[in-house]
Fold:
Amino acid sequence: MVNEKPIISMKKINKRFGGVKALESVNLEAYSGEVLAIVGDNGAGKSTLIKVLTGVYQPTDGTIEMDGKDLVMNSHSDAIEKGIDAVYQTLALADHLDAASNMFLGAELSKKFAGISYLDNEKMRSEAERVLKERLGVVLKNMDAPAESLSGGQRQAIAIARAVYHSDLRVLVMDEPTAALGPQETARTLKLIDTLKAQGLAIILISHSLDDVFEVSDRIHVMRRGKCAGVVKTNETDKQEVLGLIVGANKQAA
Ligand SMILES: Nc1ncnc2c1ncn2[C@@H]1O[C@H](COP(=O)(O)OP(=O)(O)O)[C@@H](O)[C@H]1O
Ligand SMILES: [Mg+2]
Structure:
């Protein structure tokens, strides 16, 4: 572990939807410079857990601390303001817009000339190019290409660049980032995760692919039926043990 103290500490989080207990007393810690994988069957509570962490849902009970201080979020914008953001498998890019327009959608840069405000397209483009290259190591051959013509990995890079640019990003949640990608794009995305980790981000990776999880994660947090079934260090476990935790075949204290 790079840092001893967690950036994020979720404590005894409960989340109920009517009679459904989606999360029951879940603890989670995320550290700077670390990839924490979250795995579990469908319905185990993974998405609910990260929606609580990203301010989309408010927990029924439990607390979240950031740098040891209570963190109360009433919306996803509160989370972004604190440097917590998420990118989803269904990438919310505008298909007909290029990389820069997508990165600055709703937060366009402008310049003033003779008292009139204009979109600063040149600056948006150079900033988009810079962030993609400097933070993500990604160079797009054609910055004018509409998002729909780009590969899954490139689209993901744009979504991440947007998150990186618009906040002092410290915690990045990725929900199934490789689910729709081929092997080559998957390899690129895993490399990108390593790049961000090296910059000190805390990465939380939700994935169904144990191959990906074992390749990039430092720790694995297993969810099962709304509870944490165990947290294991990746280099101290194997797929069989993790699968056992996912299906509840072996018992391990969380
Ligand atoms: N908005 C919601 N309303 C009611 N029940 C929900 C809602 N979101 C999730 N659930 C329930 O909570 C449980 C956990 O779901 P989810 O967090 O989506 O699991 P996962 O992401 O691991 O597949 C499931 O039983 C699911 O049906
Ligand atoms: Mg889910």
Notes: The longest strand covers residues 20-30. The pocket of magnesium ion (ligand 2) is lined by residues 46-47 (CB under 6 Å).
